[in-house]
């Protein structure tokens, strides 16, 4: 099959002094080989928990309540830690919002890129050449000479490119990009997005791109998963979701962030009201306190994530004909 990653009915809690915090509820979506999938949502929507669950780098108070995270058919939640370690950084790589999380400040970029190749049997000169080639691929000018420089000698945008180069060195099947452009200005953001598109083609890896900007997702991704308060509100093809959003939350996100990323103001989406307390979830639809189309049924029953057409899913009673009755 061409499915690479399958998140299947994943529910994850954090055990806290205040009770169980329901960080993810019944999350399902998949990423096909070579595809770019965006995950969008406000802070606190579960994006970080989702990433750490996929990589199995969760905090000790995490409880996997239900579901599977299948990668090339294996349930990652069941793999021995040793195999997980082999997967991380080899088959699945990650780029963080802050590239300094990747870079060691006291080692030259070249040394760090040699270290990444520690499993390779190539000579040092070959590994260095490969490092320079990767820097070139992400658009670092004069890469050979810059290998001997240290992270602080590069600009923020360059450091993020280098982090991407490092993440791609192992030729992963899946690159997880966790808000990689959020800390950059709009011009640099566009450059990184365009570069990621090229690299996706060149390396034929799938990308799971996490962002709170729908504009960036629209530019880069094939499909999008809209998350709200730990659950999927809507998912489907980017074109379809922008043209015909089926969840009021998605509509609000689009209204907040309508522009092409080159023109848009760099503001976070602001939607009146607050994300519900995940330790004390209300019954019914979790979006209902912020929804201007809420009906009596929305308070009584949780709307299920339902397929509307090919691959387009939404969790909202407005899409159920019987809801109006
Ligand atoms: Fe709004 Fe009801 Fe749809 Fe929830 S189910 S998003 S409250 S209309
Ligand atoms: Mg986060």
Automatic annotation (TrEMBL):
<dbReference type="InterPro" id="IPR003439">
    <property type="entry name" value="ABC_transporter-like_ATP-bd"/>
</dbReference>
<dbReference type="Pfam" id="PF00005">
    <property type="entry name" value="ABC_tran"/>
</dbReference>
<keyword id="KW-0472">Membrane</keyword>
<feature type="domain" description="ABC transporter">
    <location>
        <begin position="5"/>
        <end position="254"/>
    </location>
</feature>
<dbReference type="InterPro" id="IPR027417">
    <property type="entry name" value="P-loop_NTPase"/>
</dbReference>
<protein>
    <submittedName>
        <fullName>ABC transporter ATP-binding protein</fullName>
    </submittedName>
</protein>
<dbReference type="Pfam" id="PF08352">
    <property type="entry name" value="oligo_HPY"/>
</dbReference>
<dbReference type="InterPro" id="IPR017871">
    <property type="entry name" value="ABC_transporter-like_CS"/>
</dbReference>
<keyword id="KW-1003">Cell membrane</keyword>
<dbReference type="InterPro" id="IPR013563">
    <property type="entry name" value="Oligopep_ABC_C"/>
</dbReference>
<keyword id="KW-0813">Transport</keyword>
<dbReference type="GO" id="GO:0005524">
    <property type="term" value="F:ATP binding"/>
</dbReference>
<dbReference type="InterPro" id="IPR050388">
    <property type="entry name" value="ABC_Ni/Peptide_Import"/>
</dbReference>
<keyword id="KW-0067">ATP-binding</keyword>
<comment type="similarity">
    <text>Belongs to the ABC transporter superfamily.</text>
</comment>
<dbReference type="InterPro" id="IPR003593">
    <property type="entry name" value="AAA+_ATPase"/>
</dbReference>
<keyword id="KW-0614">Plasmid</keyword>
<keyword id="KW-0547">Nucleotide-binding</keyword>
